[in-house]
Design brief:
globular; alpha+beta; 2 helices; single chain
Amino acid sequence: MGYKVRYEKGNFKTGHCVLQSSKVIVINRFSNIEVKINSLIELLRDLEPDISLLDDKQKQLLFNIKQTKLTL
């Protein structure tokens, strides 16, 4: 999808941004695995990727993620 994923230390929430025309997802290294996964799923729901860049399995995964509601 054109994003670089970075795991960084700090006191911040996981999120995504465009930094000097680079798409970046920053994940807090100190978060537990459940928080990391939930954050990535939420980001995937919010992003509108270029579907042409994805193969069939990736398209199906993205479709399933967008159709599923998380309960925390």
